[in-house]
Design brief:
Elements lengths: L19 H7 L4 H18 L6 E6 L6 H18 L3 E6 L26 H18 L3 E4 L5 H5 L5 E4 L7 H9 L4 E4 L7 H10 L4 E5 L5 E5 L6 E5 L10 H13 L6 E4 L12 H13 L5 E7 L29 H15 L4
Parallel strand pairs: 1-2, 1-10, 2-3, 3-4, 4-5, 5-8, 8-9, 9-10
Antiparallel strand pairs: 6-7
Bound molecules: erythose-4-phosphate and phosphoenolpyruvate (PEP).
The site of phosphoenolpyruvate (PEP) has 11 residues, from loops.
EC number: 2.5.1.54
Catalytic activity: D-erythrose 4-phosphate + phosphoenolpyruvate + H2O = 7-phospho-2-dehydro-3-deoxy-D-arabino-heptonate + phosphate
Keywords: Amino-acid biosynthesis, Aromatic amino acid biosynthesis, Transferase
Length: 352
């Protein structure tokens, strides 16, 4: 007997996706991309373990919407990488999944054509292509893991993962993080609460069993061993920054109380710069000064940066899109990014 109107009453259709294995076959991990990912992850672990004194810098667009401009950005970052490599590990921010406060464009995977056609199948393939291209340039990548299935498609191309302010408290995201192959940065909540990030680190360090898919796309019980490289990302909240030395000391105390290592990353954007992208260099400079004055817990920073500064609304006529400019949060432009990173490098050469 069929039972119409009892389930999926608000679902309009199901469209089949290629499996992760099929996508991996179409776009296999090359030897050079493999080397970039493995070296990037190892360097990040070494920084977190204090075997490497450098600061890791997750820097790049708020979101990728145009792969041509994205690769143009990646080439610039790659060229800068060699000059600052003594003091900083540059990891490109390659964000494809945007958590929205209410509604809005949810990113390149969800709607790659930016026209509400929602070709997630094409978006996933384009995202994998883009990540491969960046890794083949020799730049490790960082992304926000929002959809718990996406890592099966893309996880082999990622060196660092963020769990966003809106999902750090979510059990699904903590479970997923317990199985991720990268270090994971948990943002404090949008209200500034860091306890949810600390609880996320504790939770994700443990083994979990949960529902997911395997490489063949079969619904599976995923059993994980736990992720030892969870850490807090301070992004400010409730309209207030939390990168100042007092906020850092409070975060360190909270980690100590939870018997967790003191590892902190400062997101220079979002509430830490009052969502004014041009203030990010001030935040970065403050963080670098704290390190120069002996701070030992700051291991990384995040910067939202693009070729052109600011942001733009997605126009109805996509040919009107401004090249290299964010369609989500505002960013600093390339010149400001380069100046800021070179200044931080010069300062960090003097660290104790
Ligand atoms: O960094 C990204 C945004 O701050 C986040 O996705 C929320 O965006 P929204 O408030 O514009 O939806
Ligand atoms: C969504 C983001 O940040 P947050 O989760 O801190 O709002 C982001 O970095 O793109």
């Amino acid at each position: 007997m069929t039972t119409p109107d009892i389930e999926n009453t608000n679902v309009t259709s199901f469209a089949t996706m290629p499996t992760p294995e099929e996508l991996h076959k179409r776009l296999p991990l090359s030897d050079s991309a493999f080397a970039t990912v493995m070296q990037g992850r190892a360097a990040l672990r070494d920084i977190i373990d204090r075997k490497d004194k450098r600061l890791f810098v997750v820097v790049g667009p708020c979101s990728i919407h145009d792969p041509v401009a994205g690769i143009d950005y990646a080439r610039r970052l790659k060229a800068l990488q060699a000059d600052v490599a003594d003091t900083m590990l540059l990891v490109m921010r390659v964000y494809f999944e945007k958590p929205r406060t209410t509604t809005g464009w949810k990113g390149y995977i969800n709607d790659p054509h930016m026209d509400d056609s929602f070709r997630v199948d094409e978006g996933m393939e384009k995202a994998r292509r883009f990540l491969l291209d960046v890794c083949e340039l020799g730049l490790p990548t960082a992304t926000e893991a929002l959809d718990p299935i996406s890592p099966q498609y893309l996880g082999d191309l990622i060196a660092w993962t963020a769990i966003g302010a809106r999902t750090t408290e979510s059990q699904t995201h903590r479970e997923m993080s317990s199985g991720l192959s990268t270090p994971v940065g948990f943002k404090n909540g949008t209200d500034g609460d860091i306890s949810i990030a600390i609880n996320a680190i504790l939770s994700s360090a443990h083994p979990h069993s949960f529902l997911g898919i395997n490489g063949q796309g079969t619904v599976s019980i995923v059993r994980t061993s736990g992720n030892a490289y969870g850490h807090v990302v301070l992004r400010g909240g409730d309209g207030r920054p939390n990168y100042d030395s007092v906020s850092i000391a409070i975060a360190e105390q909270a980690l100590e109380k939870a018997k967790l290592p003191a590892n902190l990353v400062v997101d220079c954007s979002h509430a830490n710069s009052y969502k004014k992208p041009e203030l990010q260099p001030l935040v970065m400079s403050d963080v670098v000064q704290q390190i120069r004055h002996g701070n030992k817990s700051l291991v990384g920073v995040m910067i939202e940066s693009n070729i052109v500064g600011g942001n733009q609304k997605i126009p109805a006529d996509l040919s009107q899109l401004k090249y290299g400019c964010s369609v989500t949060d505002g960013c600093i432009d390339w010149d400001a990014t380069e100046t800021m990173l070179r200044a931080a490098h010069a300062e960090l050469l003097q660290r104790p």
